Amino acid sequence: MEIAVIGGGHGCYAAAAHLSEAGHSVRLWRRDGEALAPVLEKGAITLTDWQGSRNIEIALATSDIADAMHGAELVVIPLPATSHDALSKVLAPHWEDGQVAFLPPGTFGSYIFAEAARGAGNMAGAAFAETGTLPYLARKQDTNHVRISVYATRLPTGVFPAIETDRALEVIAAAYPVERLSDALDGALMNAGPIIHPPLIIMNAGPLEHFDAWDIHNEGTQPSIRRTTDALDAERIELRQALGYGAPHFPLADHYDDTREEWMYGNASHEKLTDSGDWREHIELLSHRYMLEDTRLGLSLMASLGEAAGLDLPLINGFLAIGGAITGTDFKATGRTLAALGLEGLSLDELRALLQSGERP
Hints:
Blueprint lengths: L1 E5 L3 H12 L3 E5 L3 H10 L1 E6 L2 E6 L2 E3 L2 H5 L4 E3 L7 H8 L8 E4 L5 H11 L7 E5 L4 E7 L2 E7 L3 E6 L4 H8 L5 E3 L3 H5 L4 H11 L1 H6 L12 H20 L10 H4 L12 H8 L12 H21 L4 H14 L3 H4 L13 H10 L4
Parallel strand pairs: 1-2, 1-6, 2-5, 3-10, 6-7, 7-8, 11-12
Antiparallel strand pairs: 3-4, 8-11, 9-10
């Protein structure tokens, strides 16, 4: 299959290498040509995982978005949600009939990319899908070397518009282990990042500011934080149910306990992550994506939906408030709310209709 991978982050290089090794023809696009140069020079990315290290040839590495997008059947966008507003406009003129976009995860970015295409006058019949996590726990080791500690085994995925679900999932399933959800918002509310990361970065704020490097997934994941994470996840599940989304909800507790149902990364994934040592790092508290993406964007989306559904979500709103206090920013005013998405004022029935058809009521 012809696949475009958009971006130059950890997950992007992991996707380019993994999908190429799986036999797909991959075009890797990165805006920064100088940063892409090591891949251009070697025509390959070094991949390290449980099988060892090897060089994986990439069909095309380019800083020309048209070259990357034209003719691609699947467009994988494994980038932080903080990139979506600007990137959706870059990609907007290039979508073609039949293409499928995959945002792992999306924070409801599927809607942003679809709206950007419409705003650019591009009415191509593309579908936009999103899931609950990145398909890899991965970190770059060098400019063209990525290590994948864990591969996802289950990726619950929703599609915008939902009427394109059958077609879109058939395409994505050729690359990833997707499982069907009812629509893109169902997929957005599977996003694990806004549940795992806000407690980790906010409740570890002191050590993060004190130590040069700190592994928030290892010594930063203490029982008190895990209890808080489970309580925060309970609010996510309460919100899903209020919006009409049924089980499975992929509770985060499954990720940490191998006696429970297999989570998105399979068994022993947390231990593999911490054993790698790749997450022992310096985290800049005010600018890290756990703060600006998962807390500001992810939790503000949930808080906004909760307000529309008439729910009291004290932990979601509390972490938003504390994150805002730490950074000196109003996360609700700058977050990914229904108002920011242009969806304020829609009833829940009107929102459901939009998710199905892609057309505003």
